[in-house]
Amino acid sequence: MSVHSSLNPSQERVLSVFKACASEGWLRNIDWACANTFAQMNPNTSGAAVLMAVCMLSRWEGLGHTCLPLKALQHWSSALGQELTAWSSLSDLMPQSESEWIQALESSVLIRHDSESWALSEAQLLDCAPVVFERWSQEPSLYFRRHWISEFLVAKSLIDRARTRLPYDAEQLKHYLSLLFPVSPESVDWQQLACALSIRSGLTFVTGGPGTGKTYTVARILALMFSLQDRPNSIKVALAAPTGKAATRLLRSIQNAMGPIQLQLQGQVDINQDIANLTKAQTLHSLLGASADGSRFKHNAKNPLDVEVLIVDEASMVNLEMMATLMQALEANTQLIFLGDPDQLAAVEAGSVLADLCQPSKQLQQSHALSSYSKQVFAELQGVMDLPSDFGGAMESPGLQALELSDHIVQLKRSRRFEGPIASLAELIKSADLRALNQWLSDEVSTDGVLQLKKYAQAQGVVDESIKPSADDLPKSRPNFYLYLRLLCDWIEVAKQASNHTSSVVPEDWVKALLLEFERFRVLCAVNEGPMGAKNINQAIETQVLSSFDLPQTGEWYAGRPIMVTHNQHDLGLSNGDVGLVLPQKLGDPALKAYFLSGDELRIFSLARLVNVQTSFAMSIHKSQGSEYEHTLLVLPQHMDQALSKELLYTGVTRAKKYLTLVQESDGLVAKAISQVANRSSGLSAQIKRLKQHLERVSAQAPKDLAP
Fold it and tell me: Which of 635, 598, 640 is nearest to 617 (CA)?
């Protein structure tokens, strides 16, 4: 498209207001820049309303939404959360009704108009305007082209995999299920049901909160696959997660679960070699062969992954575009299993795929306490496991319709590990019962010291909680950074006195012990910026540590500095979110190195090779996903209304395994958080329904023009 520079006064006025709002921080620079680009590309069809739509769409994307509903666009005047005179002054240039907005949007050649009768073809996917206006759905919305394409590709791939029925021997499956699940305390053993569902389908979602046994279940799914295979050691399995830490935890959890499984299957089938081959778990970026900048991938539709079964953990963290990239890189017959908690925070980038797909099925199961599965699936399940007679009744209830992917979703309900006061708090947050929550929080004694509530108006309170010794100062007490720092200083003092060992390499066991001690405690913040944000609290803790402890230091680097990788470094095998420590490499030598623990393997890097790292005494709740800590100190700031949400609070609370310290900058922030639900605008569920209906209309064989 040609570029124009002549704008009319209305366009110049709108763009001037956008730029001024961006300079004041009410908009992002990219928001007004998107609108400006539209105006320059075709000023004749980019009137004031179109420029507002593009600016709002960009802002909406920055908040994690994949589309901008027309209803939200109509309320543009209140979109910034503040009454700004300049912003409000644009009202005379904006449409006053829904029909006027539609007319304005349809007048631009830069906006594609999608209707229900639109033919789905590859040409139309790739060769369309930069913005798409979908009119066919119940909630008409605007999309940037890349999100619209990603949404279609994900929906198409999920439908195709959901339609794939895998052959299996029902008698054999029933036999092995009885060995792996001999006794169940529940009327329905949801873990057993998840195993049965996954064997028959090319797509399975195993969901549930902390401790419900998602990785325990997927280990048994793998054991079943290995037991039922035609030839020993013939299934190619890949394990992946969005972050390196989550990938490592997935692998170790599966490996730990396999010991009891081997005993259960002993004398029945030999799957030892299959289990021995489970030695690797990768980040999604590594699995797909991402380029150094993460913009290109080795594996795609033309060069798919050579795997038969792919298991993806922490699926709530996978954004829409990454999900589309993953789907395109898989063979049609690859069996795909997702694990995740849809109640957790969605990805930082746009999209909330897991929540979009699982929420309707979860609500149905919760409200009816029965099944959201079809009669066909119920009959198959009944043939391989014990089910109550009324289990399949929900789908036949008046007013209920089959959900598009409900036959492929299992919600694990009972927590086997995550129990006690923290688990109770997490359930109260999910239910958003303010009265019960406030009553429960007011009775700290009932938590037996597991939960502490604090109020600090300044970061120093958080610093004191983080590095001051506890009253008993015992290793088994509520941990913070004090024991880690004491262990570090004690060793440094020994090293200074051991002059005869100055050339010795630092003992590997000591480094591992120090890394593990550091991982017992973490400060988690709702936001990065601000007085109670991760950046300021990191700086405050670091300042206190350096003034209170004698640690060798060279510039910004010092012994014991915890660091977190903030961008993937594929050349080093380091992923965004990986945490390590800066320590000496040799006794008595001031030279420092970076140490990271990957499973049981200790990895050492020169500091000069680390491109993007930051101090990590504290981190954002988003960055903590996929991790757990013995003691979590969770900081909720005031004046951060948009950041606080039920999902954010739930995610932060469930990072704590044994102890939780909840810090509010002012009273009422917990209540404010759980009253705000982080709903993201998305058309994925509607797109899946649309595609499924289309396929059912035409035939069982998809037409050629549906190929992605």
Answer: 635
